[in-house]
Amino acid sequence: MALLEWKQAFSVGNASVDHEHKQMIEQINQLYELLGQPTTAVTIEAVLGDIHAYISAHFALEERLMRTAGYAEYENHKDDHEDLLDQIHELMFSFSENPDIGRKLLENKLSDWFGRHFASFDARLHRELG
Ligand SMILES: [Fe+2]
Ligand SMILES: [Fe+2]
After folding, report:
1. Tell me, what CATH number does 95's domain have?
2. By residue range, what is the domain housing residue 39?
């Protein structure tokens, strides 16, 4: 079963942003599935690297949009992005010790971030800036 599921409540009202958020959910689900199977550290590392790159690029775009607009919630929003990137780094370390620990981290901590961030910070941002 997939770890995360897209819900209409996550929509920020911008189809291309929603599409990127869906891609992020899809990538996390693929990682979760991978961590439950016999696999290699090299494969997990490659998948984590792709996820990190995709999410970083997405965050960079949002942060540029906010800076350009002089958006008031910029700092708090950026802090929440950094919180996720820190969690991904933590995951990178933990999986190399033990994939089960990585899987638990995904279930217990990281998975909550997505719906919460999309429905709060991102919804406010795109309501104001398009
Ligand atoms: Fe976003
Ligand atoms: Fe965001």
Report:
1. 1.20.120
2. 24-129
